[in-house]
Amino acid sequence: MRNLILSAVLASASLFGMTAQAEDIQAGKQYVELSSPVPVSKPGKIEVVELFWYGCPHCYQFEPTLNAWTEKLPEDVNFVRIPAMFGGVWNVHGQLFITLESMGVEHAVHKAVFEAIHKEGKKLSTPDEMAEFLAGQGVDKAAFIKAYNSFGVKSQMEKAKKLAMAYQISGVPTLIVNGKYRFDIGSSGGPEQATQVADFLIAKERAAK
């Protein structure tokens, strides 16, 4: 299994006049610019993508900071989560996330899945184990299994794999702004700084419109 890369978001806050910080944010330092931009899912909006894995401890630790940040995003920003799938249990957990999303219950149980793995020691590595756990979260077992094995979910998995390749990611959590910029927690200096870098790149894209 691959080494996890602490990932994350760029750092700044120049939007609010903190120009000294903004001047410190540079391509090749806190973030890299992709050689080939990737189309966004909602044209007209500035997209922020987080690539993650339910089994990644850094993704779990980043969740509170990321969630607080996403709750305050303006209307012109679209936040998207995409599961990274490098094979094995990564793919199984990716299929779990996409299934929950297809059922419209991802938002309600996303945190519970993370905590089941990292606080309760659950593997959630088989459909039956997932269904049993999710039943306790109010998700119908039969409906989950049916969706998990559906053609639609498997098609979305292939799409997610292709996007991860286009973003050229090698670990998680990784963030992508508007299909152009990639960065992580390590390069930005920490979770809080990562959201600041994301804000900087969002402002950069907004100004370029």
Automatic annotation (TrEMBL):
Annotated protein name in UniProt: Thiol:disulfide interchange protein
Give the signal peptide as a residue range, or say none if absent.
Answer: 1-22
Record InterPro entries:
DSBA-like_thioredoxin_dom, DsbA/DsbL, Thiol_disulfide_DsbA, Thioredoxin-like_sf, Thioredoxin_CS, Thioredoxin_domain
Where does it localize?
A: Periplasm
Chain ranges passing through the membrane:
none
Q: Name one GO cellular component term.
A: periplasmic space
Q: Which Pfam families match?
A: DSBA
Disulfide partners: 56-59
Q: Which UniProt keywords apply?
A: Disulfide bond, Periplasm, Redox-active center, Signal
User: Does the keyword field hold Disulfide bond?
Assistant: yes
Q: Which SUPFAM superfamilies match?
A: Thioredoxin-like
Give GO MF terms, alphabetically: disulfide oxidoreductase activity
Which positions fall inside the Thioredoxin domain? 7-203
Q: Of which family is this protein a member?
A: Belongs to the thioredoxin family. DsbA subfamily.
Mainly localized where?
Answer: periplasm
